[in-house]
Queue: 2 jobs
Job 1
Amino acid sequence: MKHVFGPISSKRLGQSLGVDLLPSKSCTWNCVYCQLGRTQRFVTERCEFFPKEEILAEILQAVETREKIDWITFVGSGETTLYKGLDWLIGRVKQLATIPVAVITNGSLLSLPEVRRELLEADAVLPSFNAGSAELFERIDRPAPGFGFERHVEGLRQFREEYSGKLWIEVMLIAGMNDSEGALRDMAAVLSTIRPEMIHLVLPTRPAPEGFVAVPDEDRIRRAVFILSAAAPVVHPAKGEMALDSADNLLETVSEIAVRHPLQERELEAALGKLFDGDHSKVHEAIAGLLSSGRFEKVHQGDDLYWIIKAPSEE
Ligand code: SF4
């Protein structure tokens, strides 16, 4: 499938079927931690990048053929709300699949009334918020010109006024950047004015384009949970667990995920272990088969090894 991947197991959304609406990488920001690499060229104009009927057909096919799906999640190769026509897709999915819909977004376009309107039917919207000051926002999220801090915060506030679904703010906590007491208090102060239902702390555990990006130690994570709790309940970060529901088309299934989401080798081995009922020889055979396709390369991030899709020029 071209647009649909997973389901991936996550603490926040259970078994989540990912739907990617964008050509890679299309974004209004260039975050230091982006798992898709640096933004080569900002995209700021909204567009129906792929026919919505084509995307809907893939979603419905996945819902019929793949196991347990708790959420259908619009997310992917850049800023999700750059896709024009989200309201049509959300409405049709809810009507035909009766599975709740979530949208993961950086929130940069929420200042536009049409974007806020297109998201109203989503059951949950998860915008990013990584800094409580303009200076830190510029350093972490490195937005396109015209997409400054005030615009971001104002968009989030306006959306909260109009949206009655679940607003779950996602905070990427980065060592040495936004994990100081001052930075966290600034964030809590602004978040109090946005009034999300919940704050999800996430960590930059996947390969990042900038070498200085690192995961804070446990003490700093606990302090972040404590300080941000002044604005809303905080979900402590936990690594999602990947699930594979069938050995059929394993190469395609793993490729669909890895193209958007670097795969931790340990997670992949654990998922294969579950799939093959702990049969190590089958797990090794599957790993060898996947690697022999030549589609993946392994990269180190901290102490972990990740699989990513090889760049086309390297194939
Ligand atoms: S908003 Fe998301 S896709 Fe865009 S640069 Fe940041 S992390 Fe990457």
Job 2
Amino acid sequence: MSKRLLLVGAGHSHLEVLRRLTEERIDDVDICMVSPSRYQYYSGMFSGYTEGLYATEDTRIDVRQLARQARVHFIEKRAVEVRPKQHKLICHDRSVYPFDVISFDIGSRSLPEHLEETQARTIKPNYTFIEEIERIRETTHPLVVGGGAAGTEIALSLHAYKEKQGIPGNVRLVTSERLLPDTPSWVSKRMESLFEKKGIQVWENEKVEEVDEDYIMTGKGNKIRHTGVLWLGGAVSDPIFKHSDLDTDDKGFAHVESTLQFKDYPFMFGAGDCVTMLDHPKLPKSGVYAVRQGPVLADNLYHFFKKEPLQEYDPQKQALYILSVGHQKGFLIYGPVSFCNRRAWKMKNKIDRDFMKKYK
Ligand SMILES: Cc1cc2nc3c(=O)[nH]c(=O)nc-3n(C[C@H](O)[C@H](O)[C@H](O)COP(=O)(O)OP(=O)(O)OC[C@H]3O[C@@H](n4cnc5c(N)ncnc54)[C@H](O)[C@@H]3O)c2cc1C
């Protein structure tokens, strides 16, 4: 009898699994993908879309179509619980999918649960991106919360959009640390100067304590007015693993071994933002790693069914980041190296377009 593999989420690693399946089948295995949207939106192109450089179709991959080419049955649903002992996945509409092997690549969220009923919005999960960005970029005083790569880049792109469209007002950013806290401090200083030059107001080392309809309050007592809050304060886990009583880190991301297998269940795999590697617990939640885990995950799924030894994923020591800062300029960061110019943006544009081409 044939076995069943469930792929949950259409994240970067699973795109690679689908691509491999278009080339080579796994014998006697029925494969289904469960994901809440037929499209996978690529965050590398979020800044360009925000600024108005890319169209919707540039930013997304039609997963249903890719799945069809890979002979994978696509199910447009959101997974809410997994019962490993019974080999069952439960979806938001309480439908139940049995499996022999399951793999998760469901990414992360940005909005903490306690803010869900407030005015704060976000663009993760990524299928909410277009609607939320289109709403906030038309407002006069959008406020971005979070000064990491995502928050910084989106604030700069919102600013560029407003300039081009002649929308009055200004972009504001509040962050609990310095801008780009994971880079050397001189890189943060450079980014601060860029924000100052562009007239984007920044509050560093300030925690947002309260989100109200037209203002936020910080821990230091600053009341900052806004016409919309975009929350990009770092990766938050989907509640599925906690609800399913699986072994997770303190933020709810599932623990996996270097083979990308769940700690207690070798027939469960996971990659991308939704997992934390036991051997590399500090690995950033970044698309770079989700992309690199893809080929290892794909190989291991093939090997697992064939009962062959699995590969280990060994993350690269340093990753290249190029942030779009508006008007086709890029801010490149690679370890201690950093510069800001048009060439960097061109490089980013090429990397992102090549990535999309591979899966379209
Ligand atoms: C504005 C912004 C810009 C960024 N730019 C970059 C960048 O330039 N470079 C970089 O390396 N990183 C960047 N990141 C980080 C990057 O987005 C994430 O690290 C990356 O998307 C993680 O990839 P993933 O494959 O884990 O998940 P995702 O790409 O988030 O994909 C998750 C998939 O799972 C689906 N899904 C979600 N929940 C469920 C569920 N419950 N059940 C089933 N399916 C589900 C989603 O629909 C989606 O298809 C950026 C983030 C933001 C917010």
